Amino acid sequence: MRAVVSYADPSPSLLRYRFERLWLKPSIRQLVRLWLPLFVAVLVIFSASNNDGLREFFQTKSTQMYEAMAARPELQVTQVIFPGVSDDLQQQILTVTGLELPVSSLKLDVAALKLAVETLDAVETAQVRVLGGGSLEILTVERDPVVVWRDGDVLRLIDTEGRRVADIARRSARVDLPLIVGLGAELEVGEAMNLMRVADPISDRVRGLVRIGERRWNLVLDRGQTIMLPEFGAVSALRRVMALHQAEDLLSRDILSVDMRNTDRPILRLTDEAISELRRLRTEVRGEDA
I want to staple 231 with a disulfide (CB 3.0 to 4.6 A). Which of 69, 87, 198, 216 is the partner? Predict the structure, then answer.
């Protein structure tokens, strides 16, 4: 007699069949794979945030992990390098940034350091970056002074934009730069430089430019001579004076000032000696005519 062998029914159960049909729907798969884990994560975070002990535990652990990572030797910054930066500016940068070495690169706020360096008058732009080997590199573009501005009793170096670069103790420290004086003079550096270029043929006689009433310039020469320039068209007026000087040696004569404020009527003011000599000559001429 043959034994009866029972075989399992290969067809799925009704419950399994319904689950497999349900799994074919994209919305169900997205719910299980994305939204359900996200809901669980939010639920855990919410529970932890309302549990003071658990929240403090996580904060302590995260702080400990951060401090351990920051203390790693390969992340320590031990030196600051300043390619092409003057010694004086290097000291100013160290002072304004308050850097204390060694420090972890994880604790360095490079953006804040950059802003701090750019607050210095002598710095136009700055770049700060952490290099390998424990080095912090600070690159700067320094402002280039073009004039010396006498601001009251203080001598300031000014760039083309009228920005202060530094102060100097005495004029002799930068005799290579022209001198401008007066309230508002630093706001018209561009025009001052143009006037200096026009006056270049007599640069050895130029003592400086004085801003008058925040409106116009006086060009001051040696021997007490002054060229009084108009509020508008100062460069053109000075060119006329320079042309007269080259043609007739005007500024070598006994002239106290050349008034070009009214360009249609230039006025020459003679020195007292020249006036006395002119009167003497007139008296002699009248005597001969008599």
Answer: 216
